[in-house]
Design goal:
seven-stranded parallel beta sheet, binds UDP-4-deoxy-4-formamido-beta-L-arabinopyranose, 14 strands, Rossmann fold, 11 helices
Length: 335
């Protein structure tokens, strides 16, 4: 089977491509490399021993995407491509709506023109918004507090409506919690451009001496140690969840959402302490004020993924910390 992976050179996309290739799928990456390095496909090939086909393109560019489908017999699509920074989306909302919605609509139109009717969509726990309580379940109403989150809510709705009108189409909506860590080879990992927004890449850069210290955004939340709880899951476990979703799409139609998380909430300080302990490296930090929009607790009820996808996160927080540190050390050694 041939799988088109849009955004396949990105953090989660690249790890998913490795798992796909190692499972014997043919992989085509479509990526504009806006938020990923040109050498990622080589790293994917080095790890998996098999090379993905690569098209450098913008998924919203219909004629170029049409060529990908015309030149290849694509059986299913995993759609990662999109802008994903919460804060940035508040500053340039039109760019986020145009990019994330247009790319999805163009993809669906091109898939339809070529009779491709299986899609795995990169959604997010952010669709649970501020009104629901953890542990989140897939039947809860969705909403958002920022344009990035709204694009995910809207795309889920687009896919539900499309499936209602096209009974042979399967859309598996994967709601990721907090993916962290890196491939054990050290060749792939979370390597954002500029100063990281997310906790783990920031912690890793502080530990590596690339940033002076971590600011913990608030320790006065109603949690066991006052810092926010999140459902961190290893990016390789998350990647494997996409294989399970593809297999599910093979034998199902309609649009269905699944939480991909461990079901456990881990606090900021617990993660920082685990990172220091596992890697034997200090992570200097100071307590700062709360970050706008942060929720005290965000973690999954992953029961549906366990039962319907037969997927369970297996790696531990220590594994996540160890692999994240190995990745940044490998990157530093590469220069
Ligand atoms: C985790 C915790 C921060 C940085 C985001 C997006 C979400 C999804 C995953 C796309 C929070 C704290 C962080 C720092 C800190 N992305 N923190 N100091 O906010 O749970 O989720 O990424 O789908 O949509 O919102 O992840 O890693 O930014 O923060 O104290 O320098 O770490 O306050 O409690 P978040 P995060």
């Amino acid at each position: 089977m041939t799988i088109l992976v849009t955004g396949g050179a990105g953090y989660i996309g690249s790890h998913t491509c490795v798992e796909l290739l190692q499972k014997g799928y043919e992989v085509i990456i479509a990526d504009n490399f806006f938020n990923s390095s040109q050498d990622v496909p080589d790293r994917i090939a080095k790890i998996s021993g098999r090379r993905p086909k690569v098209y450098e393109l913008d998924v919203a560019d219909g004629p170029t995407l049409e060529r990908v489908f015309a030149e290849n017999s694509i059986d299913a699509v995993i759609h990662f491509a999109g802008l994903k920074a919460v804060g940035e989306s508040c500053q340039i909302p039109l760019r986020y709506y145009r990019n994330n919605l247009d790319s999805t609509l163009t993809l669906l139109e091109t898939m339809e023109a070529h009779g491709c009717n299986k899609l795995v969509f990169s959604s997010s726990a952010t669709v649970y918004g501020p009104k629901n309580e953890s542990p989140y379940t897939e039947d809860m109403p969705t909403s958002a507090t920022n344009p990035y989150g709204w694009t995910k809510v809207m795309i889920e709705q687009i896919l539900r409506d499309y499936c209602a009108a096209n009974k042979d189409f399967s859309a598996v909506l994967l709601r990721y919690f907090n993916p962290i860590g890196a491939h054990e080879s050290g060749l792939l990992g979370d390597d954002p451009n500029g100063i990281p927004n997310n906790l783990m890449p920031y912690v890793a850069r502080v530990a590596a001496g690339q940033l002076p210290k971590l600011t913990v955004f608030g320790d006065d939340y109603p949690t066991r140690d006052g810092t926010c709880l999140r459902d961190y899951l290893h990016v390789v476990d998350l990647a494997k969840g996409h294989i399970s979703a593809l297999e599910y799409a093979e034998s199902h139609t309609g649009a269905e959402a699944f939480n991909l998380g461990t079901g456990d909430g881990v606090s900021v300080l617990e993660l920082v302490n685990a990172f220091q302990k596992v890697n034997g490296v200090p992570v200097p930090y100071a307590i700062g004020g709360r970050r706008e929009g942060d929720l005290a607790e965000v973690y999954a009820d992953p029961t549906r993924a366990h039962e319907a996808l037969r997927w369970t996160a297996e790696k531990t927080v220590d594994d996540m910390c160890r692999d994240a540190w190995h990745f940044i050390c490998t990157r530093q050694a590469e220069g």
